[in-house]
């Protein structure tokens, strides 16, 4: 069995499909369908590679069901952090697998994950057994679970406009809060490590090293088709990556009053809130955001800077690393 351990929203599904596809497989055993099924020639959807359904348990109880069915096979099993039981599950993956791939996001790229609309089509609810797909439903579910009292207070004060919502996110959501799958690998060192940035930008080069590690030949008949699909998949998250890579420049230009166009990033409210969060917690500054619907450039935001008035001791313990 091949184990693929990843950080969430880093490309684990595309990586799992790549291993099957470039090794020349036409079918694979699907745990969820309990049968051997055809391998798709193109896993891309409008937002990710989930046209392929990997053998990925969503929680520790599913993991316990999946593992016995895949051990001693040539199938891939893929997982990232669970809400509980991750450490034990990762250890079992190392014990039961012939090869292990670890895909992790470097701290400099954490803001790649920052977005109001998740890359997955469905996200498990924190408060029920449902899976949610609408971004507003996902936001409300998460907020009700973790920040219910604060949310109710803001609603009582009728702070419900987009600039109020952005400030609420900035105060309560830490975009730099991150636990890596690497935190769970313990003393295990016998694995192939992929920096997620390499998967997102130049995996057409690294994929050859990966298959050398797997001791599997790449199907040359499929490589060109895979390359076209990879480039399409890579383009799906270019804007998110641009935001992560330019975040320091954005903040510096806001502080300095230097003009820098933000419209190319197509920022959503979560990304705008990440900028506001950093200014609040790192520099004790905020913006005069009343009626500010959209962040358009750094000079605009510089002109709106003001001292922060929020008591941060009553908010989250921000773990800023940038």
What is the approximate shape? globular
Instruction: Please give the CATH architecture of the largest domain.
Output: 3-Layer(aba) Sandwich
End-to-end separation? 38 Å
Order of helices and strands: EHEEHEHEEEHHHEHHHHHEHE
State the low-pLDDT regions, or none: 317-322
CATH class of the largest domain: Alpha Beta
CATH fold call of the largest domain: Rossmann fold
Q: Tally the helices: what do you get?
A: 12
- How confident is the prediction overall: mean pLDDT? 91
Classify the secondary structure makeup into a structural class. Answer: alpha/beta
Number of strand elements: 10
Strand order of the largest sheet: 4-1-5-8
Structure write-up:
By secondary structure, the protein is α/β, with parallel strands linked by helices. The chain has two domains: 2-114 and 179-236, 3-Layer(aba) Sandwich (Rossmann fold); 123-174 and 239-314, no CATH class. It has helices at 12-22, 60-70, 86-96, 135-146, 148-156, 162-172, 196-201, 203-214, 220-236, 238-256, 269-283, 298-302; strands at residues 2-6, 27-30, 35-38, 76-80, 99-104, 123-124, 131-132, 192-195, 285-287, 305-307. α1 (12-22) packs antiparallel against α9 (220-236), α2 (60-70) runs parallel beside α3 (86-96) and α10 packs parallel to α11 (269-283). The chain is globular and about 60 Å long.
């Amino acid at each position: 069995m091949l184990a693929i351990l990843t950080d969430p929203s880093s490309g684990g599904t595309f990586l799992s499909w790549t291993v099957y596809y470039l090794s020349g497989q036409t079918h694979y055993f699907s745990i969820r369908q309990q049968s051997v099924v055809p391998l798709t020639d193109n896993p891309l959807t409008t937002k990710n590679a989930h046209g392929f359904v990997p053998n990925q348990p969503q929680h520790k109880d599913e993991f316990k069901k999946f593992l016995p069915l895949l051990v001693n096979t040539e199938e891939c099993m893929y997982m990232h952090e669970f809400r509980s039981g991750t450490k034990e599950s990762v250890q079992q993956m190392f014990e039961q697998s012939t090869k292990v791939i670890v895909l992790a996001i470097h701290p400099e790229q954490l803001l790649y994950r920052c977005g109001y609309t998740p890359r997955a089509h469905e996200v498990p609810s924190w408060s029920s057994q449902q899976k949610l797909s609408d971004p507003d439903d996902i936001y409300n579910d998460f907020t009700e679970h973790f920040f219910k009292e604060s949310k109710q207070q803001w609603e009582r004060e009728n702070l419900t406009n987009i600039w109020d919502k952005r400030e609420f996110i900035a105060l309560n959501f830490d975009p730099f809060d991150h636990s890596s799958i690497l935190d769970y690998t313990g003393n295990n060192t016998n694995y192939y490590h992929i920096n997620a940035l390499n998967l997102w930008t130049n995996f057409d080069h690294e994929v050859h090293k990966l298959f050398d590690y797997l001791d599997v030949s790449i199907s040359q008949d499929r490589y060109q088709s895979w390359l076209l699909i990879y480039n399409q998949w890579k383009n799906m998250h270019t804007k998110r990556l641009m935001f992560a890579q330019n975040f320091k420049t954005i903040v510096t230009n806001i502080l300095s009053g230097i003009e820098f166009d933000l419209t190319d990033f197509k920022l959503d409210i979560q990304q705008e809130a990440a900028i506001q969060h950093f200014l609040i917690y790192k520099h004790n500054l905020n913006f005069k955001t009343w009626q500010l619907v959209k962040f358009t450039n750094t000079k605009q935001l510089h002109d709106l800077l003001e001292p922060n008035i929020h008591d941060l001791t009553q908010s989250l313990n921000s773990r800023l690393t940038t």
